[in-house]
Amino acid sequence: MAFLRSVSADTGPAIHGNGVFLRIPQMGDFPAWAALREDSRAFLTRWEPTWPADDLTRSAFRRRIRRYVQDVRDDVAYPFFVFDADDTLLGGATLSNIRRGVTQSASLGYWVGAAHARQGHMSAAVAAIIPFVFEQLRLHRLEAACLPSNAASIRLLEKVGFSREGYARRYLRINGVWQDHFLYAMLSDDPRPERP
After folding, report:
1. The predicted structure's pLDDT at residue 1
2. What is the DSSP string of the chain?
């Protein structure tokens, strides 16, 4: 079962799950992040928006960290890096587009390094983030979208309890092309699969 502990405003929340640990990215993560992203470039680019030319530079990462800190302070997004028990960076998960008021919802996105794919790490990370969404952020709805060709992501979402709700034509621009997506969601009172 996941649990949350509060840390400083600059580092944000930390979440522990089944063999994984999630926390807000920090500047000291740059070398591991840049290496993992570069090593996984061919694996990731077919599932992600086009990478900026300077994406893997230290200065771009510094800008990214500043934006992350502000997003957490403003309660509009919560980006996390995912680590294993040995403190190895595995990937990332982001809660974005947090909407309050009558909506109380957020969108979930995630990525995993090629060397760590299909080993259950991201399923554990997403399962760990769900209690944070509903119990700590007190949101009503968590949404996710994935390409119809991404069988691994479809399995992950359905395994942790998301329901497919629709099909959005040309929903997100992935690798430079507007792509159709399956739309998934989970509500705060939906039953969740039992986790070890």
Report:
1. 36
2. --EEE---TTT--EEE-SSEEEE---GGGHHHHHHHHHHTHHHHGGGSPPPPTTTTSHHHHHHHHHHHHHHHHHTS-EEEEEEETT--EEEEEEEEEEE-TTT-EEEEEEEE-GGGTTSSHHHHHHHHHHHIIIIIS--SEEEEEE-TT-HHHHHHHHHTT-EEEEEEEEEEEETTEEEEEEEEEEETTS------
Residue type, 19: G
How do residues 49-86 score in pLDDT, each as one tens digit?
Answer: 999 999 999 999 999 999 999 999 999 999 999 999 99
Mean pLDDT of 30-59: 96
pTM for the model:
0.90
**Domains of the chain: residue spans and CATH:** 3-141 (3.40.630.30)
CA 15 – CA 18 distance, rounded (Å): 10
